[in-house]
Amino acid sequence: MFWRFGYHSTSIIDGLIDKEGVTLDDIMGEDELLQEVKAQGAKLVDYLCRPANLEKLLGYITADDLDEAKRFKFPFVAAEIFGCEVFAICDALVLNRELLSAFWRLLEKDAPLNPLQASYFTKVNCVLLNKKTAAMVTFLRSQPDTVKLMLKHVGSSAIADLILKLISVEDIPEGAGIIKWLSSEGLIPHLFSLLDPNLDPEVHATASQTLTDIISVTYQSFVPPEQLNALNQPMDTIQNAQGGAGTVLIDEMKSEAMLTKLVGYMLDRGAPNSTSSLTNGINVIMELVRKYSSEIEHAEIQHHEFQVQMQANRMGPVLPTPEKLNALSVDLNDLLRVFTQNVANFAELLVSPKSAKPLSEIAPGSQAPLGSERLKICELFAELLHLQYLFTSSPLFDSLVKPPPYVPARVESGPQPTYTPPTTIVVDGLMALTERLVDERVMVVCINHFFVFRWNNFLHSVVYDMIAKVFNTYSYTSSIPTPLALTGPVPSIADIPSPTEASGASAASQSSSQHKMKELRSSVKKLVVSIFKDARLMSQIIEAQHQNDYEVEQPKGVRLGYMGHLTYIADEVCKLFEKCSPELDDELHDYIVSEEWQEYVSHPLRETRDRDRQPLGGARPEAPAGQGAFMGAGSSFSYNAGKFGEESTEFTKPRKKPDTTRDASDDDEEGAAGGGRTLPGEGDTFTDQFARYLCQQVVKDLPDRFMGDSSDDDEDTDRQFMSDLEGQDVNFDISEAIQMDGQFAGASRAREPDEETLSDDMASSKVDGEEETSEPPSRSAGGEPDLAASGASEFVADFESAFSTKDLERALETVVSSNPSAASSSSSTSRRRRRPPPPQTSPPAKTSE
């Protein structure tokens, strides 16, 4: 609290500023500068906002001739000062256009930029875009060749991040229109030109990464319809936010001109770095396909949410909108068309890649590597086959085949646009691509590579995914003779057609989708037949199994690398034959009924499945016969329990009476329920433990039991306990059960266990679900099972069995003869512990000895 009275320490920075002749260099050398800036001291902030000082701060970042003492520290401190995001400093810098223009002249230097300068430059501009978005966007648009200068240094990761930051500003109202401006400045064509195979691979990697990042940044986040309703946005705003299948930059990437240029770079064999262009170009194409697949999935979620709202009688926006359904139905037409035209060239690269080494450079006895080219091409084919399965199995298939009409947005000038239904849709491109895959034997080559490169698990995973997607697509199309009736949501309630028009539109939509589904099923069936006939899939699986068995039998032999994925592929074949054997019987009858295949399925494949289902560590080991000695005399834990560390009452559970009426099924059920435990009480171990337990119980009350000084209260308690048992119709005699011969015959009879002791003993020896006897359980007057009587009967039976041992007699004789003092102390303790007898209205009847 001293600072309230002016005892706090004065800022060192403020003291320097007050001195005459102090310079910015003097302040920059202070270690507490950044802390003072974050504290936003008024005197320091005013000092830094001076134009001369701002110019010096920016000069520290862009200068190349700083002294050795300032070269690293001053640029870092200057960037961190702007990184503190002090509003006054950012506002002073943005308002000074001359300073900003001079700062952006850093991009006029020749490439490559100093990495530190580029990172500090990006940091300052990102802070300004966050704090003063509208002013910075206006400034950048006013500068000539801003985008070209950034693309000049796009090889620097920091400048690439700045481009992504500009794109992300589109989500802010102040930055609306920035993407259209970047597109008009030629951002996408320039990035595609950087994938020229004559450029360095580092440039290819940076350009490819920037393009994929643009796809990710411009991806519109999905908002559930319920949240959109909660925002109380106008219907037009919601539909514009959710409609459309991409931004301007994404649509430009998917244009036929850009993709043709990119594929030309990828297939150029004469360029020195064509392999790098191929692999990085495939990354861009795969990202476009994945984004389209994600948009279909999001549209399905929107449709599901819309159906839930309709069922709940809640009004909300109709999602997905007709605009989005129309865009999704034609979104990848250009990409599929360009790729279908070049399937033969990609198939040729699968056989003889550009990066393959001559045979003279391969060591004798070694195998040529697969290479990144062939692996990437296989991944691209797998992604397209995955898209085919996703498109075919989508609940929006009918709406994507025949999208609903909508009213285009009106324009301010010129003729108003009208709706034109699409003539070519994505499903047409997928069917054409499938036909080309069959003609060029692409699946045949990929499957052959699977067995040739036996240790390349990356390839094995990709080929398995390709086969699974083809089989799943055909199984789905064969299992649905009539596609789901979904004509697509209507734009608004006012545009709902009459029942006659709706039925006609639904029938037309179903007819069109059924026709497309039939054509798609036919094309996929050709691909399935080619996999079995041309690729000899089943024969190669059997041969690979034999080869693996031979390798395993050799000294130090190991399983081949593809055996795990081979089992998965065999399972997919079995599932296909199980679901679609009638449809495939005309083409693959000999393969379906092949005895060699049936032999493989019934023996090697079945054995592999059984082995894979086993726990990794094997079954839980049973406890040895002498587990009591292993675990200690007083241990209450057993490894034979259902769970590790589970408390086991095996030594205290009563032995089970034999039941000749139980069958084997009952034993199985009991064994499963008990976690594989053995029956309690088997062997001599149980007898010894139970005898020791009874000895402890008897010795605790030794004077009362054997010295003849039991009180009248104790006798009343005993009589009450016996009368309770007689009232429950328990058919046994306690006095006969505990009658003993020997040196204690003349002493007072042993006291029968009272009700509390009996209930505790029964609870400690009880095991749920295992106390079954041959006699039916006793029932009370109401007809319900008398659990107390049945429990008492079980206890007395075990009491008789254990009490007949000689161990108890010897133990009692030893205790009485060797330690009489313990008896007296135990007697006083037992009296203090004994429960008082319950109140009685009449004396109970005595029990005969």
UniProtKB/TrEMBL annotation:
InterPro entries, alphabetized: SAPS
Source domain of life: Eukaryota
Region: Disordered, residue numbers: 497-516, 603-685, 704-793, 813-849
Comp. bias intervals (Low complexity): 502-514, 817-829
Record field: compositional bias (Basic and acidic residues): 604-614, 644-664
Pfam families (UniProt xref): SAPS
Key words, A-Z: Cell cycle
Family from the record: Belongs to the SAPS family.
Protein name according to UniProt: Sporulation-induced protein
Organism of origin: Polyrhizophydium stewartii
